[in-house]
Design goal:
By secondary structure, the protein is an alpha+beta fold. It has a 5-stranded antiparallel sheet with strand order 2-1-5-4-3. Helix 6 packs antiparallel against helix 7. The termini are far apart.
Length: about 180
Amino acid sequence: HRVLHTLDASDDGIFLFDADTLQYAHVNSGAVRLVGYDADELVTMTPLHLNPYRSEAEYRELVDHLLADPTATARRETRLLRKDGTEVPVEKTYRAGPMGHDGTRWIVVLARDITDRLAADAELRTREAELAEARQAVLLAEDHDRLARDLHDTVIQRLFAAGLSLQAVAAMSTDDRIYARLATT
């Protein structure tokens, strides 16, 4: 009784299902909150009711793998279908439970709502893309700046050379008008 109350205290959904029939035997309060069905409804269902993206054959293969190696754990990201028809993204962890006194074999599933994590991951990818775009813009601006400096330096060098040439020509000029105009230029 104490163990069941402890399981109910978890925010995560905990589902125990029969390895042979796939029918839920127990669900905690977290599972009820996660999918919106009450516990009495859930114990009449199987994982196939909540996960239409997996076939019975896939579940059977997973169960066989877990029963063959009691230390094995399987993790899957999937979506569970809620009672209201909406879907909730979850990360599910599967393990084989201990065999019951009557020989029943159980699979324990821990289902965690990953809606917030997926939103944070999407936000992170968006920010990383924006950062990469900003870095590209900075590199482009730096390249434009370098080209402008090179062009500016080239223009100044040419003007300076032209000025020296004009001074040399002005010094050789004997006509005062030409000298004055070259000196002004």
